[in-house]
Amino acid sequence: MNQQDLIAQLREDNGTKIVMLVADGLGGLPIEPGGPTELEEARTPNLDRLAKEGTVGLSIPVAPGIAPGSGPGHLGLFGFDPIEHQIGRGVLEALGIGVEVGPKDVAIRGNFCTIDAEGRVTDRRAGRIPSEVGERLVAKLAEGVKIDGVETLVAPVREYRLVVRFRGEGLGDRVADTDPLQTGLHPLAPKATDPGSEKTARVAAEFLRQAKEILKDEQPANFLMMRGFAKFPAISTMEEVYGLRSAAIAVYPMYRGLARLVGMTVVEPGKTIADQFAVAREQWGKYDFFFIHYKYTDSTGEDGNFAKKVEVIEALDAELPKLMELKPDVLIVTGDHSTPSRMKSHSFHPVPLLIWAPATVRPDEVTSFGERPCIRGGLGQILAKHIMPLAMAHAGRLQKFGA
Amino acid sequence: MNQQDLIAQLREDNGTKIVMLVADGLGGLPIEPGGPTELEEARTPNLDRLAKEGTVGLSIPVAPGIAPGSGPGHLGLFGFDPIEHQIGRGVLEALGIGVEVGPKDVAIRGNFCTIDAEGRVTDRRAGRIPSEVGERLVAKLAEGVKIDGVETLVAPVREYRLVVRFRGEGLGDRVADTDPLQTGLHPLAPKATDPGSEKTARVAAEFLRQAKEILKDEQPANFLMMRGFAKFPAISTMEEVYGLRSAAIAVYPMYRGLARLVGMTVVEPGKTIADQFAVAREQWGKYDFFFIHYKYTDSTGEDGNFAKKVEVIEALDAELPKLMELKPDVLIVTGDHSTPSRMKSHSFHPVPLLIWAPATVRPDEVTSFGERPCIRGGLGQILAKHIMPLAMAHAGRLQKFGA
């Protein structure tokens, strides 16, 4: 029996509230040997108090040594095995901009590009055209493309990026990307890598043929490329597994999309973390579980800006009392992966993890929240997918297993 | 290959002795924030010495977040995956009152109820009749019911609860409960949910028909309902997996039953832990493995009596030198789950674990036995099912794997 089935069998509703605060890319590294990490450097009196009252540890997002993208990183946090449940890029991009993806759909990431008179790619991002231009071109495609027997949808993402969705019977998603990955080459023709995806490849080829005609007089975005062909994955919802009415309060489309994938309701988040906590307060009575996503710990890490990452951690900490005023029964603070500013990228390092739950927590000897103290925490080092069962247990939402 | 098969392949007999001392529900919680747990509060010079000489850690009974009943808790300690090997409720109830269950048996939980003239349930627990009444009615059923080709056994549990056991050929256990779960409805007829259980359903229906006649003039317990139909689970014995001649020294029927389930010999335990250790001394030459069960750490926790739980831990500690005089090669001290007196119930919290084995232990820096020190122990946090392989290894009873 897998974890979801076991939890679904044991869960019960007792009206408790669980908050999962995900500081994206939270984990870090010292910028110089022997120094503190970003989280250790940051002045975080509120997180430190929660660490003292609660228990800490380290979360391994997927498996030892594996640096995850946002998709697997979050699926793990939601309690699903990220290796077993893989989500295609096209689906993630579509969900992120609010495009629904259902069982008959294939979603594809598109990007406008520039081709020369011979059809060779001269700019893979079409000069990073502004979003308004991207939106106009997407509208032109949506208006112009017609393919028999398949419903097409085209939607803008940002700048040169768009989503294409095909809806119809018999559309597999095993189609290779058309991006040649360097300039001076022709875009590749869509090619199926299994027989069940031949129709999708034909539909995509026809879409690209019509698009080339429609865009031919545009500059610099006179064509597009497709990648990340993906179908909706078979995955249970938060309600099915945990019986939790779940709300996502996330500013960025990707995380809203991931939350939708597991059946969360996406509520309007405002712009800042203070807004997000205010939204949690407004919605407090309507949901059992709140996923609150904070992006800036990741983006500052990706930028390699140690000082700025420290600053956004402190900014998050400063707002925490507003969240604590809601008196959640269980608060989880962690990240979906580490993004050390020294590496300027997602990394495989385990992520600091904090569980605060006044009714049930067994405290440890740790009194501050940071990578080193977390090594000595009571939670040990656990797979991210085990966090949700622990949250459910701390919330008193799991019956005893067996007699 | 599963763990049992691997161990069975590598095991060898070298005459060493392993003792597993299970303090039921050992793990606890501080009764007030920042305070000690029951085990930390208790004065335990002997356990502390063993922790110092040995190595400690924490045992996760089933999986993170899962609070187990006694059945899965002990199966884990005996080295079996408690999710893979689930023991039906009827079998556990039977074991709990000392009713043996074998391969030809189906065990069922029964409860007396009250029905009206139309046969509708008016009280699902027959007014919680006292145990003496329950015992009298069980004797009446035991005397009166006769079913061709099947041996029936009826035994009282407590108040309105009883156990029914059918012994015969071809008795499956896929039969639905007959309790309609609310008053005003007729009890359900026993219904097989697979073809192999049709005979059991027929036998149960005949049992209920005769019982209704026998009980018709009783008040308020004039009928009974059946639930938790269960067969003896397919599970290997301690001898098959580990090659260990194993003795169980347990006072309470449930733990004797669980030990029998995995093929241990149940020896008469006396009444106190001192008696149990004396029995171990008497039986020392006859067995390789001794499972010694101490109940009171659980029952005091269930009662929410922190001070009393501290006291029974101290009482256990005080007797330990008598066990150590036997010079076991390996001593395991742990619990099947936590029972924090603050929660008055089994909980999911990991359980303090101690392995003492003078010939092979790699000591850690921990010098006392308690929840917080165990976090820093050399064993880390491990699944309970991994304890037996470690015990076998420390006993020198496992050959090298591969060349």
What is this structure's SSE topology?
The structure is a homodimer of 403-residue chains.
Chain A: H1 3-10, E1 18-23, H2 38-41, H3 45-53, E2 55-60, H4 70-77, H5 89-96, E3 105-115, E4 121-123, H6 131-144, E5 151-158, E6 161-167, H7 198-214, E7 223-231, H8 238-242, E8 246-250, H9 253-261, E9 265-266, H10 273-283, E10 289-294, H11 296-302, H12 306-324, E11 330-334, E12 351-356, H13 371-375, E13 380-383, H14 387-394
Parallel strand pairs in A: 1-10, 1-11, 2-13, 8-9, 8-10
Antiparallel strand pairs in A: 2-12, 3-4, 3-6, 3-7, 5-6, 11-12
Pathway (chains A, B): Carbohydrate degradation
Function (chains A, B): Catalyzes the interconversion of 2-phosphoglycerate and 3-phosphoglycerate.
Organism (chains A, B): Tautonia sociabilis
User: Over the alpha carbons, how many angstroms does the gyration radius of chain A reach?
Assistant: 23 Å
> What is the CATH class of the largest domain in chain A?
Alpha Beta
* Beta fraction of chain A: 15-25%
- Cα(first) to Cα(last) distance of chain A is 18 Å
So, CATH architecture of the largest domain in chain A?
Answer: 3-Layer(aba) Sandwich
Largest interface: A-B, 28 and 38 residues
In DSSP terms, counting alpha (H) and pi (I) runs of 4 or more, how many helices of chain A? 14
For this structure, what is the CATH homologous superfamily of the largest domain in chain A?
A: Alkaline Phosphatase, subunit A
What is the overall shape of chain A?
Answer: globular
Oligomer: homodimer
What is the spatial order of strands in the main beta sheet of chain A? Answer: 9-8-10-1-11-12-2-13
Integer count of domains of chain A: 2
